[in-house]
Amino acid sequence: MLVRPKHGILDPQGQAVESSLRELGFAVAEARVGRVVDLELAGDDPAAARAELERMCEQLLANPLIESYAIEVPAELPAA
Amino acid sequence: MNVAPRIGVVTFPGSNDDRDAAWALRALGAEPVPVWHAEPELPDLAAVVLPGGFSYGDYLRCGALARFAPAMEAVRAFAAEGGLVLGICNGFQILCEAGLLPGVLRPNVSLSFVCRDVRVTVERADTPFTARCAAGQPLTIPVKHGEGCWFVPDELHDELTERGQVVLRYAEPCNGSVGDVAGVVNEHGNVMGLMPHPEHAVDPLLGSADGALLLASLVDAARDRALAPV
Are the beta carbons of A63 and B176 separated by less than 8 Å? Predict the structure, then answer.
């Protein structure tokens, strides 16, 4: 799950990262800082997993007032 | 009649102002009742205070985990029945995450922890939390937080202002809150949250006693409720 500050929401962390990257000489137009949540779920149904992850985001992992989220479910399970 | 109303102070793992809140409430005539976060039911109380601190390490987002504590379910039910609930700092963050108050507290715009006395203005003196104040009265109360930047969309801020839900505003730059909001109440006016710490300003020895006006208002209101026939 990728949780990000919504567009239009002031992101002071992103601004600090942005100005530091510029000071290092990188041509950065805008930086936004969010968070990654890696989860391992039992089961082998990607659609069911996605629905479950949606509920997790809505109920806890993201605050819909300020954050948007994106869910990535790998097609192949990583090798153990 | 001089009855000491029973006011619960909820302690979460990571709360650190619970004892100061209890001390201040007792000094102002209440009987503070410690409530552990894992308790699924509240004892007989006239009001509840959610104190400051760093519940559950402030992991994920401030207050986001504390709202699932069993005691919070009980607080939610207490509030739904009209019970008085005051959230201070982390308590305010928890009430916002629990959906009992509008908005969310985000990192300060400065990204710095702010720890100092601030001036706030009382916007509403007709709430159970501000009855001892006058509308427009300036108060000096300390803040100490890294994530006190209250956010709602501008339209919601306008609506809340119109409905009189904004109770305190900073009178000087503090953390970047929308509309300089320092404290809000819910629609029914029985739940309030604020970032400044009134419990740290109840005696002139501490630099200001203005916080006592807020907490004593709560004690008054709690006493009225304790005395009201059930």
Answer: no
User: Lowest-confidence range among B26-30, B81-85, B223-227?
Assistant: B223-227
Residue given tokens 């963050």 in the structure block: B93
> What was the ipTM of the complex prediction?
0.80
Tokens of A17: 């990262």
Q: How far apart are CA B24 and CA B119, in angstroms?
A: 20
Range of the domain at B39: 6-227
Please indicate if any CB of chain B lies within 8 Å of the CB of A7: no
User: Residue B229 has what pLDDT?
Assistant: 63
Of B61, B64, B111, the CB nearest to A12: B111
Instruction: Tell me the CATH architecture of domain A2-70.
Output: 2-Layer Sandwich (3.30)
